[in-house]
Amino acid sequence: MEEPDPLDPDFSYLFEWFWSMRAGLSAGLNGAEPLSMTEMAHWMALTGDILRREEIRIIRSMDDAYLAAVARERAEAAERSPNRK
Questions:
Q1: What are the percentages of helix, strand and coil residues in the chain, rounded to 5?
Q2: pLDDT tens by residue, the chain, 85 residues
Q3: Per the domain annotation, does 75 fall within a domain?
């Protein structure tokens, strides 16, 4: 089975679902925490929406990209910080 393209407008719901899941997470001392399978399961239980395997893979890839972007931004902000040692 071919994996859906998340940039296809027919799959824009994945972005909505992703941000809905992320909205329920808090940041830890080291920044954003990864979206866990438990969080996804709780989100499905609360919303009634069911994630297929390929949608889970896409959302996890989206989360990996999000976490990498957040880490880059934190590193760049640290570089700009006047308190940097």
A1: 60, 5, 35
A2: 566 665 677 888 999 999 999 998 877 777 789 999 999 999 999 999 999 999 999 999 999 999 999 999 888 888 887 775 5
A3: yes
Cα–Cα distance for residue pair 62/85, rounded to 1 Å = 33
Q: Hey, which residues does 31 pair with through a beta bridge?
A: 28
A 10 A CB-CB count for 67 gives 15
67's tokens? 């976490």
Structural domain range at position 13: 9-80
In this structure, is residue 70 part of a structural domain?
yes
**Lookup: tokens for 5:** 């393209």
How many domains, the chain?
1
Give the Cα separation of 74 and 56 in Å (integer): 27
